Amino acid sequence: MKPLIIAIPPNTPSHQDGRMRRIKNKSVSFPFVERKRNKREANTTRKRILKEDTPLVGGRESKTPPAETLFINDRIYGRTKITEPVLIELINSKPMGRLKRIDQHGAQSIARPEIPLITRFDHSVGVMILLKKFKASLEAQIAGLLHDISHSAFSHVIDYAIGDSRTGDWHEKFVKKVLNQSAIPKILKKYHLDLERVAEAKNYKLLELPEPNLCADRIDYFFRDSYVCYNFLTKRQIRIILNNLKVINGEWSFTKKAAAKLMAKTFIKTAKHGWYHPKNSMGFLILGQAIKIALAKKLIKEKDLFSDDKTLFRKLSTLKQLDVQKELRLLRSFKVRINYQEYDRRSRPKSRAVDPYISSRNRLIRLSAMDYEFKKDLNRFKKYIQAGIPMQITNHFDI
């Protein structure tokens, strides 16, 4: 039997297709990726070969038996061989398919369409691969693959609507609910795995730890975003970081201070000038407000949040509520700058920074304890985030 080959294209931006779909009878537009199927796919039974620019079949559970071997060509980690049937079945499951239609960066695909698109699916598969490369247990790899399964449409935008933007954890309350309403419990039971344990990412130290610790989740989204989206990191630098990254006594740590500092300083740069870019920050606030209004007026329901970006945006755009439409028009064309004196809205995002361990003389020491310059940078960044990001919209009269 020939293996299944899948290309995961985290660098494929929705805008690069050159296609814009206009929602009927509305002036709100939104870029969506056109998915092209391989012509041979319809005639294959236990084999599916996808081209380099084509994601895995999205949104439907495969009716054919799973392949015995899966090769994933990932932009960050390269070619990875998957032989575990449970991983292959989970990757092809419907809930994982939904993640292919959810932007990792919330409103960024609308506010900054020039930035390449990364989906929750890309990141989830990446976390699984990273854990596999560092010899984590199969159970931990499964937990890594499923850790974002309950993200709502537009990811963390929901935390600006009804959650807490400082914690960004609204979706975590729904992990078991989303899993139990799918075929995933059946898949896990088939392979004698405990759903209750796998559903809790915090059960796996290599997968999930609080800031400023390193964990697979934090490492993967840093690599993917810094390299693919914002060009703050090169492929060579990723290799340097990976080659110096080790798991010692169950802790992610570095063998060299220079590699640790490279990652930690670039992490702060990515946070400040990528994730917290004024266009991103304001986009989250505007779209979050539109969702908040629609929910408050019972124009959309909780279940709508668990669709995907395209479905939820279309539903919002067809509402006749004036305040919702005002926010969507603003989202489409706003210009913004940071202004501490005269600002329209202030973003209070979740803090994102790392202070990695370095292995030195059989001890694990924080980078900040070894490098005073980095310690000052880290403290400065924390104060910046705690104060919030005040932003002024500069084109009110053009909208």
From TrEMBL:
InterPro entries in alphabetical order: dGTPase-like, HD/PDEase_dom, HD_domain
GO terms (BP aspect): dGTP catabolic process
Gene3D superfamilies: Hypothetical protein af1432
Bias-annotated ranges (Basic and acidic residues): 40-54
Domain HD: 120-222
Tree of life domain: Bacteria
SMART domains noted in UniProt: HDc
Annotated spans, Disordered: 37-65
One annotated GO molecular function: dGTPase activity
Pfam families the record matches: HD
Protein's name according to its UniProt entry: HD domain-containing protein
Protein species of origin: Candidatus Buchananbacteria bacterium RIFCSPHIGHO2_01_FULL_44_11
